[in-house]
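User: Hey, my collaborator sent me this sequence without any context and asked if I could get a structure. I don't really work with proteins. Can you help?
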Amino acid sequence: KSTTGNGSVWDGNLSADRKQTWLFVADGQNTTVRVFNRAARAPAGTIGDGGRWPGRFYAVNNVAVDSKGNLYTGEGYEGKRVQKFLKK
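Assistant: No problem. I've predicted the 3D structure and written it out in structure-token form, which is a compact way to encode the shape of the chain:
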């Protein structure tokens, strides 16, 4: 609720499992990917934080999930990169 500026939801995508259990939200303003459990309707955690190192974000504005459950993120502004997060 306290996010201002560009807002917090820049993109969203569902997991590739049959029930689409997880919702991944690119929170560009707060430089993280938020993960929600759809069945529980509750936050499940975050991925990344602000920064330019691998696993961190400058301006995460896209999220996608492949059929194996791997997460891909794209960054705008000066981030200008794509990162892949392997499903564990």
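In plain terms: Strands lie at 11-14, 22-27, 32-37, 42-47, 60-65, 71-75, 82-85. You can pass these tokens on to your collaborator as they are.
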